[in-house]
Specification:
The chain has helices at residues 13-24, 46-51, 53-71, 87-111, 168-171, 188-199, 218-231, 284-287, 323-337, 366-371, 387-392, 420-432, 437-441, 452-460, and strands spanning 2-9, 29-33, 114-118, 121-127, 130-135, 138-147, 151-153, 165-166, 180-184, 203-207, 234-236, 240-246, 251-257, 260-266, 268-271, 275-277, 310-312, 351-353, 358-362, 376-382, 398-404, 410-417. The chain is of the alpha/beta class. The relative contact order is 0.12. Its cofactor is FAD. Pfam families: Pyr_redox_2, Pyr_redox_dim.
Length: 468
């Protein structure tokens, strides 16, 4: 029976990062993960690298280029004819990126002397100060076990994944462009995957149970909806679905909206109605691992579960289901096990939607601040007044900076527009250091750059924008 100081169950962003950091801190480490590639071999990286963040961004980039050459290049004096889509090649590129990155984790494990096991890791029993974890027929021992098993797509009572009803895995691997594509859920995943297939020619309709992007700032959501509708994506809000039927050659969705009962037919249906914690095969009931009412693993502020020596991080513990949040928790957890002061500042975790235009934010929305009675001041600056955005021919959107009304300390930023997935990092850094809107406003930004929009918005907090 092999013995380790730290055993990580789950090889996604939280798990593999925790394993590497623990190894850097001098522990003998192993990581157990069950994900397999098309050849049946272990493919580390979890949902994010294999069937989530990375492949979706690869497809978003490819289809963004397709749309640009079809509809935007002519404005630059570049005439292109005979454009055609090679879907198989596009998908092969995506698969190549996934293979490169997942293979890279294997190399990082080898470099840091982390042992990888392929299979499901199950907590079996405790022997003295060590936990026994089963991987198939093999038993491993470890004093510290980190659970990082992530999440999985939520199914609803009236549909199951399979056939023409797709989860994120199926939506990333279609071999034909559906003429009509339905999406249940106009959230992050629904909007990104809907955008991918719309750009390739699908007629996309998204059905959303609530309002549009209610997790985002109200002004951002309003701006985003306008652009998505202008692009041709149909978004129907306040929908209550009663039945989903896969008839083999099509999917029929029965729902009610403010106008009454409706029927919608499509060739393929992507269901993206949220994700739930993946605690399958952990042996939670057998060893008495405590879960919350919603099925997440219950932890304290230092990632301890109710079982001594067992910790949990990432999607499986709830909160923001983001790869970068899981990664930082993995680092913090490993450092806490080593007796260091591992910590994650959850007030400074950014969220991004990689559509066109991109959407990014950090901190509370204006509505949330108003509901809590927080006094704040805000500055907003539009990309249309930015020279680099004009040169790029993409002036959509704006940046909003929010600061405390009394102290001027930065408390939030909300952005929609070109490259805001990158621009948000500047604000997060200033927030992490407890900086103010004045600090951001007085920082010299290169000209011409998109980042000047962030500076101007920060200046707008004090009503002293120059270019507006």
């Amino acid at each position: 029976m092999s013995e380790y100081d730290v055993l990580v169950i789950g090889g996604g962003p939280g798990g593999y990062v925790a394993a590497i950091r623990a190894a850097q801190l001098g522990f003998k480490v192993a990581c157990v993960d069950a994900f397999s590639n098309k050849e049946g071999k272990q493919s580390l990286g979890g949902t994010c690298l294999n069937v989530g963040c990375i492949p979706s961004k690869a497809l978003l980039d490819s289809t963004h280029k397709l749309e640009a050459v079809q509809h935007e290049y002519a404005d630059h004096g570049i005439e292109v004819s005979g454009v055609k889509l090679d879907l198989a090649k596009l998908m092969a590129r995506k698969d190549g990126i996934v293979k490169q990155l997942t293979g890279g984790i294997q190399m990082l494990f080898k470099k840091n002397k982390v042992t990888a096991y392929h299979g499901y890791g199950t907590l079996d029993r405790k022997e003295g100060e060590q936990w026994v974890v089963k991987v198939g027929e093999e038993e491993l021992k470890a004093k510290h076990v980190i659970l990082a098993t992530g999440s999985k797509p939520r199914e609803l009572p009236f549909f199951k994944f399979g056939g023409n009803i797709l989860d994120n895995v199926g939506a990333l691997s279609l071999d034909q462009v559906p003429a009509k594509l339905g999406v249940i859920g106009a959230g992050v995943i629904g909007l990104e995957l809907g955008s991918v297939w719309r750009r390739m020619g699908s007629e996309v309709t998204a059905l959303e149970a609530g309002g549009f992007l209610e997790i985002a700032d109200e002004g951002i959501a309003k701006e985003a909806l306008r652009h998505f509708q202008k692009q041709g994506m149909k978004i129907i809000l306040n929908v209550k679905i009663s039945k989903v039927e896969d008839l083999g050659d099509r999917v029929v969705v029965t729902y009610t909206d403010p106008s009454g009962e409706q029927t919608y037919e499509c060739d393929k249906l992507i269901a993206s109605v949220g994700r739930i914690p993946n605690t399958d095969n952990l042996g939670a009931e057998k060893v008495g691992l405590e879960l919350t009412e919603r099925g997440f693993i219950k932890i304290d502020e230092h990632y301890h579960t109710n079982l001594k020596g067992v910790y949990a991080i990432g999607d499986v513990v709830g909160g923001l289901m983001l790869a970068h949040k899981a990664e930082d928790e993995g680092v913090a957890c490993a450092e806490l096990i080593a007796g260091q002061a591992g910590h994650v500042n959850y007030d400074c975790v950014p969220s991004v939607i990689y559509t066109s235009p991109e959407i990014a934010w950090v901190g509370p929305t204006e509505k949330q601040l108003k509901d809590k009675g927080v006094e704040y001041k805000a500055g907003t600056f539009k990309f249309i007044a930015n020279g680099r955005a004009l040169a790029h021919d993409d002036t959509r959107g704006f940046v909003k900076i929010i600061a405390d009304a009394k102290t001027d300390r930065l408390i939030a930023a909300h952005m929609i527009g070109p490259s805001v997935s990158e621009l948000i990092a500047e604000v997060v850094t200033v927030m992490e250091f407890g900086g103010s809107a004045e600090d951001l406003a007085r920082t010299v930004h290169a000209h011409p750059t998109l980042s000047e929009v962030v500076k101007e918005a920060a200046m707008g907090v004090d009503k002293r924008m120059i270019h507006s």
